[in-house]
Amino acid sequence: MSLECNPLTELYRDPWLLAVHKPAGLLVHRSPIDKHETEFALQYARAMNGGEHVYPVHRLDRPTSGLLVFARDPSTASVLGKTLMAGQVSKTYLAMVRGWLPEHGLIDHPLRDEPEDRRRKGESQPEREARTRYRRLATTEIPVEIEGHSTSRYSLVELCPETGRKHQLRRHMKHISHPIIGDANHGRGRHNRYFAERFGQGRLMLAATALDFPHPITGERLHLQASPEPSFLQVLSVFQT
Fold first, then answer.
1. Which residue among 7, 22, 107, 240 is buried most deeply as judged by most CB within 10 Å?
2. Residue 2 domain-assigned?
3. How far apart, in whole angstroms, are the C-alpha atoms of residue 91 and residue 161?
């Protein structure tokens, strides 16, 4: 696979790790739900690694853009996986949500697993603890009527998940009635459509912007960052009005 058309952007590399920026819309690896897809971040990362295997050590949903880390060998992947399980990895996301949030808070709301196989939808799923801390960074109010109000309010927030449940951030923001803009499954359709029409693209306004963890080999604290991609920043222009 050619590096010339590689959609990933390298952010960090050492003998054991490769960190990249993944654009929105790209799957990390093959999924039974998207069997028709032929392009994956895993393939592109392998191309960046000289054709050698790489090992994803954490999840990043298809519509979410941002920082993605691969281990360059199985041993490093195992160590970093254990670090994740031990809660020693701090993750930071940037999101645009409907409404004005409080300045900061903790969402402590258990979640049931969302099965990949929709045929299991009726099965009882156990609740698992899930916690997300948030911090409001900015607010805006635009003179557009979307849901019966003469204006519409939005917040730019920093989200820090303390647990790693599937779709945790998207489900938690829905739970507190501040869904993420562009979330087709957990968001508000009218708001999603407004931004899709205004900016010509209906992306999920969620970006992984930072990871902080002890290096799996050296033990030194590693802080990786990724700036949001242009399509994300374009929508954030509403905060300048």
1. 22
2. no
3. 7
As a whole number of angstroms, the distance between CA 107 and CA 177 comes to 12
Query: CA distances (Å), 93 to each of 96, 134, 136, 143, 222, in order?
Result: 10, 9, 12, 27, 17
For residue 123, the model assigns a pLDDT of 63
What does the DSSP 8-state code read for residue 240?
Answer: G
C-beta separation of 168 from 111 below 8 A = yes
Coil vs helix vs strand at 173 = helix
Cα–Cα distance measured from residue 87 to residue 77, given in angstroms and rounded to the nearest whole number: 16
Q: Looking at residue 72, which CATH number applies to its domain?
A: 3.30.2350.10
How many domains does the chain contain in total?
Answer: 1
Phi-psi category of 148—alpha, beta or left, where left has phi over 0 and alpha has psi -120 to 50? left
| Residue in 76, 112, 122, 28 with CA at minimum distance from that of residue 222 | 76
Q: Position of tokens 């960090």?
A: 12
Q: Is residue 40 predicted with pLDDT exceeding 80?
A: yes
| Residue given tokens 């990043």 in the structure block | 60
Strand, coil or helix: 222: strand
Does the residue 3 lie in any domain? no
For residue 156, name the pLDDT band (cuts at 50, 70, 90). Answer: very high
Query: What range does the domain containing 83 cover?
Result: 9-240
